[in-house]
Amino acid sequence: MQAVEDRTGAGSAARRNSLKASASAFSPPSPFQRGFDVAFRGLSLALAGSVIALLLGIVYQVMAHAAPAIRDLGTHFLVETKWNPNKQVFGVLPEIVGTLYTSCLALLGGGLLGVTTALVTSQGFLSRRWELVLKNVIELLAAIPSVVYGLWGIFVLIPILRPVAKVLHEQFAFIPLFETPFAGPAILPAALVLAVMILPTITAISREALAAVPKRLPAAAYGLGATRWEVIFRVVIPTASGGLFGALVLGLGRALGETMALAMLVGNANVYGWSLLSPGSTIAALLANHFPEAGPVEIRALMYAALVLLMMTLIVNLLGAAIMARATRGLKGLV
Amino acid sequence: MSIVARRDLVLSIAGLGLALLGCSKNETSSTSSGAASGGAAASATPVAAQVTNTVNLVGSGASFPAPLYGRWFKEYAQANKAIAVDYQSVGSGQGIKSFVEGRTDFGASDAAMSDDEIKQANDNVLLLPMTAGSVVLSYNLDGISDLKLSREAYAGIFLGEIKNWNDAKIAKANPGVKLPDQAISVVHRADGSGTSFIFTQHLAAINEKWKSGPGVGKSVEWPAGVGEKGNEGIAANIKKNPGAVGYVEYAYAVLSKMPMASLENKSGKFIAPTLDSAAASLAAVELPANMRAWVTDPEGDASYPIASYTWILAHKKYDDAAKAKAVKETLKWCLTEGQKLSASLQYVPLPSAVATKVLAAVDSIN
Amino acid sequence: MSERAIVRPRLRQPELDAGLRASHDGLRYSLKHRRTLLDAICTGVAFSLAGLALVPLLSLLAMLIVRGGPLLNLELLTGLPPAAGMPGGGIGNAIVGTLIVVGIAALFSVPFGLLAAIYLAELGNGSRFESVVRFAAKTLTGLPSILAGVFAYAVVVVTMGRFSALAGGIATGTLMVPIVTLTAEEALRMVPSRMRAAAYGMGSTRAQVALFVVLPAARPAILTGVTLALARAMGETAPLLFTALFSNYWFQGHIDQPIASLAVLIYNYASSPFDDLVGLAWAASLVLVSLVLVTNLVAQWLTRRPIEH
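^ inputs. structure came back:
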């Protein structure tokens, strides 16, 4: 019997279901159940494999279109900075740098704010009703189309940033972050809007991860005299770290692939650098800007760029997983 | 019931209910293109006896004429209930691609079609100019509402050679106007666009340096300035950025109430952009047989220097006779009744000589 | 293993007693104690950050309500899109279209994602194949929406020969699959293993455990993932531009025809020079967000469970 409130509510339901699942307790599964088991496992295996197939299918499509471009442009594509369909000069170095820069900034901002918001709305700081209200408000903001985020950036964010950027540039131009003048669209507004866009995703999933920490763990820590934040930092977050990391991965994925809003806010200039106030470009924005009007030759180059983005996503995920594995190495197997 | 089943059930019921609701609002049943599914035509509530199966036409392409086409097709659908036309702006490039591959019934392009593209379509293409527009230079200068830019001036600005508003080359054309000592902030299109194509084509025609430098294209390497997405991006930037100058479609500038510069034309006159001055430019150019005419630097005292047609692309021969008929009737309406609506939406109506020529071409569709 | 690390301070009984005695006075809450002060500061910082996070979100909502709210009326919700220069009109067919396209996408992606997640969390055995599947899902989350559209164009539109709602649903579903898979997998992992152990102990097969024990237990978290995916799907434009185009008429029951959708309508009208069309775009955005809210609330209500004691 569980005296503590079971948040997942699975206790008695699961018991009922488990009992239902085996016809009479302790009897081996019937032939039908065994057959169903095999079929089900086969089906889920097939679908799991289909995820790989889906990715491979997309990569294949992209490569099929990009092959001529890969042949013609080679690896020079990765270091060229011009994009000129007329002269058949294509290069994505500024876009690669821009994608990484804006996504990392967005992940820093969105991740920090998202996890904090998740903590605030799940660790008993607020009443249950407020938690639910905030949860719904934040989740529905995931639905706002990127076009609207772009418009918000243009009409609200950039005007607010203008005076701030002016001051930063005039006073602190010796810091590489502020060394160019601000013309409107730039890395900073793009990264900020991106952070806001991935915030709902990170918050929602982090919240679930935090809520799934069994209540007895923080309770034990409280019992030992820990303060609320000590419990959070030393018990709750490490326990939920897998889920939190998953939230960050999804957020990063969204940031890397975000198309419309960045096309409207990043300035689309083929330059790259540390300055937050200078315009830049990202691969997804490049695709959004040039795809509709592109002729056959340019489309191939754009597909090549898309392939580069997919590779980047893969590499970033690999790195992230390696970091995570190292960070949680000491924690495995302690349960 | 598991969450998946329950949610799907609810969604299906909801979707079905709304679909049925939607169906009952329709007065006509329709056949889809490629009438293999003809037997499954959804018929709805009892309809007026004389309405037969409607033909659905789908087109996609340039975004510049999209508002006008949308209006045309909607008005026409009310006039002729047997035809339902849909047009979606996806960009000229994608529009041409879908049209050539046969996924859409007609396309639209601001840059017509190149010879290569026509060859890819097995020559089964008619380029039909439907309307025209002009490209204007808009700016943000406090207190100056009537800026005149000579050819030297605006070419120089976009080449990045003229960097300040009080430069002599600009002042020469604007006697008596106090130009501020302010850096010029050039704004251009970041995305590929027909508007850029028209503008760069004109610049290449009037300026050797531009021709050998950035050249002509839907997207080129701009020597100066920031890139914004779409007309609306440029408009928003110019409005908020003192000292900015950029190029937008005429319709956009007029409806957003942006100041427009008067440009020097080939005859040396400074012409303000209006529907009439654009029409004058069109009249200055003879339309060749394949109806692909560029108005890169028109003659004539009243001509506005930067204007262009925009084309609808239709097949010479359609597989489906009903479709061919529908396309013909729709386009004919657009070229006659439809032209009366153009001006109210800030598009240039076709000169009547041109309209006649295009009508003759439409007649040849079968 | 579903439960991750916990921190177990190694304190034995005598030390606990000593600690209790020592802190007897300190059981009163007082900011003079360093740890309490730190705790209060952390709370302050956390609330400020959370507040900071809410500012842009509320600003967005405010912008939508201010610009789109005044235009909401019955005609808006039931009319067809107007052309430039024509008064009135509405977004009714776009609302229907969005529901249909997202419905198709959900039908395609939710079972797909759930079953793949069940494999990853329950039925796999930590093999290399499993890691590859997981990486594929993570890489797919970074797919630009334009590519999902291009992929569905190549696979569905080309084979069918026309633009269609079905293609639009599949393109959107492609974007949803990785989100559903990854969140569902995490949700399933979070279910305590004692439940599984109990079920196996009673003789259940692996499929039974996965479907009847673990899945129901993970329902709320899975639901969050699915609603996030749905929310994203409703707002995506690029995939639909390549697959479903748009339609100015009511849905006629054929999913093999182009169809209207709120996302494409917003894209079309938001950049229009005609003010009333821009107003429609704002109203449509507000309707879209409300639609997601309603879906969220309905889903939460449908899968609510009584709190057990």
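The two ends of chain C are 26 Å apart (CA to CA). Chain C has a mean pLDDT of 84.
thumbs up if we can close this ticket
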